[in-house]
Amino acid sequence: MKYNTLLVMMLLSSSAMASELPSFLDQNDINNAEFTCLGEESQYNEDDQKYVDILWNETLQYLESYAVALTNSENGPCLNSDEAMYDSTEGGKNMCIMDRRDMKLMVKNIYQVINNPNKAKKCFGAREDVNWIYSPGGELEQNSPVAKWLKRESFNSFFDNKVTNKDVRKMGKEFTKNFAKMVMGDEVKMPSAFPTDISANALPNLWAAAGWFPMYAQESKRNDKNFNNIRGGYAYAEIFGHWGLLRIDEINKQKVGAEVGMTVQSVDTLYPYHNHAISEIYYNMRVPACANEFTTFAVREDSKLVTTVREDSNVRTVQFDAGQFNAQSQWLSSSAEHDPLMYFHQNTIHAFEVDGSCEAKPEERAIVSVWARSNANDKRNDYGTTLLCESAKNPGTPAHSDEVIQCDLTKLKW
To answer: Which residues belong to the signal peptide in this entry (predicted)?
Structure first.
């Protein structure tokens, strides 16, 4: 198929993107929505615009499928909602994710975008001028005309020139070499709630060109509490949000708090216990090589298992005994095929562990997720900061899964 024919077909599909609305949304609030962008509208010449259009079309497909999944009630007891795990302790706790007001607002914002694509597109750009987001390079970039046009700095260059820790650099280079294998192939699978495939298998330009950030790789005081293998083996990209490709400040004069993107975490890693004052969700999209390969820990801040050790007007410091009797039962499995959706309320302490012992080629595998935060517009609550917990016995060092962990929780303002 010729390139121009493919482009026309993609653009035609985007014009038909509007979907039937969930019953909890008001059609009048969706139709003819008005958008206020973050920053100036991006301008492109005719040659460049064709690449931006491809990226925009794949963005719309990503967002629409995501909104449908969140409101899909075919797999559980919920009405107009998928079911999510929100606390892994004491046998685990689930809820209908659309019971949360912030989730309803995020879904509404997505439908306002996909039902008014021409207006929303004014807030969209390739972000080619941003120097802190990167291309994974390799096969992913070679298969994407958009990524080759953008010429973002590569992961290879990032780890060579901007990462000083030798162990992190070495692990980051291995992560880079295998990134395409991690996000593509038969092991990557959409949860059944999704109507379409929005992985790198189906949307190669978006996954190659969105702009990725290995957020823990560079030196910072926060990383004293982190593990080198996760520093070199983790990255995320943001599609819709304040730091993403689609940057919207307000819709119908209401602030937009949605951040939507994707994350990749290599196997044989523990994403350390952490928390933040912004609600967050994950959809896992990997088929595990064995049972319990991908496990999640989550405990809410008001759990009886969490003890306050000190507090001031802004922060409450708490402890949780991760090494208590039956501690391993506090972790629950999650994959594309089993309980794929997780919701973390503000200040939920959570962690992700990926066991690569059953992988034939662990260096080529990762947990891949659709990720979002829902109320990121509320900057009173420390927008954007992920607080890593620490060892209670050895403060300032990473907390392992067999000891008492200590976390600083933000006192939320309303």
So the answer is: 1-18
- Integer CA distances (angstroms), 48 to 39, 42, 60, in order: 20, 11, 19
Does the pLDDT value for residue 224 go beyond 60? yes
CATH code, domain carrying 250? 2.60.120.10
Cα separation, 231 vs 269, in Å, equals 10
* Number of structural domains in the chain: 1
Buried b (16+ CB within 10 A) or exposed e, 253-267: eebbbbbbbbbbbbb
Instruction: Label the pairing between strands 93-96 and 315-321.
Output: unpaired
CA distances from 247 to 125, 160, 213, 386 (A): 8, 30, 17, 21
Domain that holds residue 337: 138-302+322-380
Is 157 buried (19+), middle (13-18) or exposed (0-12) by CB count in 10 A? Answer: middle
Summarised one tens digit per residue, pLDDT across range 35-67 is 999 999 999 999 999 999 999 999 999 999 999
The answer as to whether 117 is a domain residue is no
Per-residue pLDDT of 280-311, as tens digits, reads 999 999 999 999 999 999 999 999 999 999 99
Share of the chain above pLDDT 70, in %: 95
- Note whether residue 274 is domain-resident: yes
pLDDT of residue 414: 85
In a domain, 119, yes or no: no
CA distance linking residue 194 with residue 61, whole number of Å: 11
Percent share of the chain, pLDDT over 90: 90
74 within 8 A of 193, measured Cβ to Cβ: yes
pTM above 0.85, yes or no: yes
Could you tell me the two tokens for 277? 């004052």
d(C-alpha 398, C-alpha 389), whole Å: 7
- Angstrom CA distances, 104 to 41, 195, 333, 375, stand at 27, 19, 26, 11
| Residue 155 to residue 214: CA distance in whole angstroms | 8
**Whole-number pLDDT of residue 18:** 53
